[in-house]
Amino acid sequence: MSKKILVIDDETELLKAISIRLKTSGYEVSTAQDGQEGLEKAKSLNPDLIVLDILMPKMDGYEVCRLLKFDEKYKSIPVIMLTAKTQDIDKAMGKKVGADDYITKPFETQDLVEKIKKYIGE
Questions:
Q1: Which of 2, 79, 90, 98 has the most crowded Cβ, counting Cβ within 10 A?
Q2: How far apart are CA 14 and CA 1, in angstroms?
Q3: Cβ atoms < 10 Å from Cβ of 72
């Protein structure tokens, strides 16, 4: 059975590109375009891993991550932050809210796939 990945990002083209790449790598992919929708989908789908942008409408990625990581039911889901925020303070905040990894944009999709494999295998 293929692993489920939830990608939460407000950039439509990026969502499409990541989805295609992950599907060709054998993953089942769901997407959300804002933090609120992402949080709801994370709770209803219970994915194996979440790829999460920080700057989004309705609720930012830090808040989504924090709410999931402090919930006993979802805290074990690995979260990879994928963001244009490159400052050390941003990375520190990602760690503080419980993110398992942090990738800055622009990025290579292969690097993302490698990180995903590190957390949930193929």
A1: 79
A2: 26
A3: 6
Q: How far apart are CA 29 and CA 48, in angstroms?
A: 10
Q: Residue 31 and residue 19: Cα distance in Å, rounded?
A: 8
pLDDT at 1: 73
Count, residues in the chain = 122
How much is the pLDDT for 122?
Answer: 67
The reported pTM is 0.96
Positions of the chain with pLDDT under 70: 122
DSSP of 50-114: EEE-SS-SSS-HHHHHHHHHTSTTTTTS-EEEEES--SHHHHHHHHHTT-SEEEESS--HHHHHH
- Both tokens of 16, joined, read 């499409």
CATH assignment of 4-120, given 3.40.50.300, 1.10.10.10, 3.40.50.2300, 3.30.420.40?
3.40.50.2300
